[in-house]
Amino acid sequence: MIQNRRQAFVNFTDESLVELAQGGNDQAFAELVERHYNSCLKLALSILRDKSDAEDEVQNACWKAFEHLAQFNREAKFSTWLTRIVVNQCLMRLRQTKRAKLFYMDDTQVGDDVVTLELRDDNLNPEEELGRLEVAEVVQQEIDRIPPLLRNVFVLRDVQQMPMEEVADKLGISIAAAKSRLLRARLELRQRMSRHQSSLGAASLISV
User: Fold this and answer.
1) Which residues contact 154 (CB under 8 A, 6 or more apart)?
2) Mean pLDDT of the region 120-133
3) Which residues of 17-47 are buried (b: 16+ CB within 10 A; e: fewer)?
4) Which of 14, 73, 159, 161 could bridge to 155 as Cys pair (CB 3.0-4.6 Å)?
């Protein structure tokens, strides 16, 4: 199946694949991820210094790229855009685990691209904080409505931030099965949250 897909897209440029993916072709997006996965993993490893963490954050970055593909400006290179998402994921991981080190990360070479890495200011003003609390309350309500089979892996991985290996072990399933359920849970939650978009605002749902 994968081999057939790759053969079908072998002569396609990234730009053509992005156009197809933005039109709803999930196979085209899968090919984009396949093409750039190794370079993204290499970058993530250089930042996190842990293979398991790096694999997790590359997966999370690919998921975010899929979620926000419609926002991608095709005047830029897809590889550069995806790289920035990977970097942001890794930096957030470092902050969460309090293992961040002071190091200069300007104009980093990634393949053929030169990427400037920036630390974002995550401080919120009172209005933004109130909006976040409102969204958080709705998110919790919708998480509770996800079928338990999917909800359990979502809560352990995305809420409690447990490593995927521990999630799989705790639930008595394989890592592949845990990842599959996690993806389905995220899709389920996103579909549920889309019903609230008009009341909460599209911008409030970007991080969901």
Assistant:
1) 143, 146, 181, 182, 185, 186, 189
2) 53
3) bbebbeeeeebbbbbbbebbeebbbebbbeb
4) 159
**189-207, pLDDT tens digit by residue?**
888 777 766 555 544 443 4
- pLDDT confidence of residue 11: 82
Domain boundaries, the chain: 2-115, 126-205
Q: Which CATH architecture is the domain 126-205 placed in?
A: Orthogonal Bundle (1.10)
Alpha-carbon gap, residue 165 to 100, rounded angstroms: 23
**Inter-residue contact 86 to 39 (CB < 8 Å):** no
Looking from the CA of 29 toward its CB, the CA atoms found within 13 Å total 17
Is there a contact between 204 and 131 (Cβ–Cβ < 8 Å)?
yes
Give me the half-sphere count of Cα atoms (radius 13 Å) on the Cβ side of residue 63.
20
Q: Which two tokens stand for residue 144?
A: 């509770």
Give the pLDDT score at 174. 92
DSSP-derived letter for residue 109 is: E
2-115 has which fold? Answer: Rna Polymerase Sigma Factor; Chain: A (1.10.1740)
